[in-house]
């Protein structure tokens, strides 16, 4: 198996990265969404890691559970709906899939792209643990971008990197994973604790003054910019300096093609099937 570092060096093919799984057609950060991403041929998927109250690693994007579960119905009147204020056992009672049909965030239900049987299968989906998500990836002989959410103002700021890396090593999956984070301290910790692990610096809102210098300082393998903060020349300069560039979140396929034409190594998208087709990958 190639490592994630080698995967990024597989030019000229750009990587298609399924954002929180195939989020455009399934509830994000569930095993179902990951399985769909794999089924449509994404090169890897991306997930988000948060801590529970009892320091278990779970796959949830937001700090709170409100948007993607029925937490307010199951636990009415709780003073907090933050992930870190619930135990893993409490999270196991939540439905992480039924919200999808009613919210229809990408309009794909209304467009008739998701049939009734598929929608019914989303009901009762659970929040996966990081271990469950990694074992699914391992079973598929696949790859995953593990984004460690910023815990600076939550529990576990000093331990989350160590715990994530320990799990990856225990499962013998270091060559199948790239670690990314907006909290760049975690990437520096990763370099110190597990120098063989591929890492990517996430950036949003404000473009770093010198993206190449930032990547060199952090010792990362890849730069993961919000598509909105790319400046002319960034893609070429980063690639020339030896860094992969995976751009998020790109759902306009003409934009995806343009980014790849200018040097993007990978496209992080909610629609991996459409992205593969647009990039001539199938």
TrEMBL record:
Entries under Pfam families matching the protein: GDPD
Record-level GO BP terms: lipid metabolic process
Residue ranges of every copy of the GP-PDE domain listed in the record: 14-279
Transmembrane segments: none
Domain of life: Bacteria
InterPro entries: GP_PDE_dom, PLC-like_Pdiesterase_TIM-brl
PROSITE patterns documented for this protein: GP_PDE
GO molecular function (one): phosphoric diester hydrolase activity
Signal peptide: none
Designated name of the protein: Glycerophosphodiester phosphodiesterase
Phylogenetic placement of the source organism: Bacteria, Pseudomonadati, Thermodesulfobacteriota, Desulfovibrionia, Desulfovibrionales
